Amino acid sequence: MDTFFKLSERSSNSxxxxxxxxxxxxxxxxxxxxxxxxxxxxxxxxAAAVTATCIGAGIMTIAMGVFSNRPLACASGxxxxxxxxxxxxxxxxxxxxTAMAVILIEGIAILVLVLCGLREAIMDxxxxxxxxxxxxxxxxxxxxxxxxxxxxxxxxxSTMVAIGDVTAPSFIVGIISIALSxxxxxxxxxxxxxxxxxxxxxxxxxxxxxxxxxxxxxxxDFTTFGAPFQESGVSGVMGLVEVFSTPALLLFAFSLMxxxxxxxxGTAMAVAKQGNFLTKxxxxxxxxxxxxxxxxxxxxxxxxxxxxxxxxxxxxxxxxDGGRSGLxxxxxxxxxxxxxxxxxxxxxxxxxxxxxALVFVGFLMMSDVVDIDWSDILEGFPTFMIIAGIPFTxxxxxxxxxxxxxYVIVAIVRGKIKEIRPLMWVAAIAFLLYFLLL
Length: 438
Fold this sequence. Notes:
Layout: H1 2-5, H2 14-28, H3 31-39, H4 46-68, E1 74-76, H5 80-91, H6 96-115, H7 118-125, H8 128-149, E2 153-156, E3 160-163, H9 169-186, H10 192-207, H11 239-244, H12 247-275, H13 287-304, E4 309-311, H14 315-320, H15 326-341, H16 343-346, H17 355-364, H18 377-392, H19 396-413, H20 422-437
Antiparallel strand pairs: 1-4, 2-3
């Protein structure tokens, strides 16, 4: 095991990797409840959605660990699952089988781009300053997710965002989880982020935030498996056939591909920063197998009926807790598969308890801010647009798109068109089309 995962070479050990895998799993465990609740709006049976979510995340996370040997975990992507449920199914009136066929096509398209080397080439064409901006923006985004899930920040009609109810139980649990993460990390306690999650979850029991499980074991439901090849419950036509006969759905596949394409890029850079496999010029080491597995995961998500499966930014919590190899991912993947059987227990870990781990990871990722030359508007302003755009639009791909387009505009105005690499032009134009299609 040491040889296969290169544990000694990366100054790690089995115990650390197992602990990091558990940290990553707990930080992502909310998806076991959230994804089925969203997909149920598309007409997918809740039990089937839970099975698809857990099995899909488990298989692809293990695959990521084995083939990339990096501490990255995969699960159904937030955002795309909402598009499936509320846009494709609710608004457009499509059957969930057809919606999953759109996801399958999107995943295959991304895989083709990876195998052609285009996805990796675009990443290499990104200026170093923008790469740093993506990492910083992801840090703020991760922290924002944690604060939102705990109710520490809430939506507000007047100010858009505001502080939550300080007396609310979830707010209290969130603050406790942050305090525990900082205190334990400062004391050099191994597994500080994991312990912060566990203790906060226990504190949440008497406060009513951590629910008592209604059972122990839940039966599996494979209804959604092979969704694109099933007949749509609405049109009566096989999902895949309906997509290819409807041009508008192919445009939707393109939009989803753009989101998936750059979300993974940002996530990989964020986790690489914490896992020590990000080079000085902001490149992710050995990224090709990561991109291949992530692309396959998107297609697998459509086949299983779990929505697009993608690399999760919460993986950074496990990397920050010491995870350095694919063993972290294998552990997290096994836990996801077990969760398919024990979902009543696993789903009891409240998102408020993971707040501290996500906020602390956000803090760690801010270190890149010193590597940006803010006095150079070509380097500084587009980077700022990424940093601000990711959390403010609550979207990794939107923030990256704003930065890319801004970079091209500023370079033109400054008379530095030659500094724009061809693939940056391609990416900026693709993002412009993406925004117009939103």
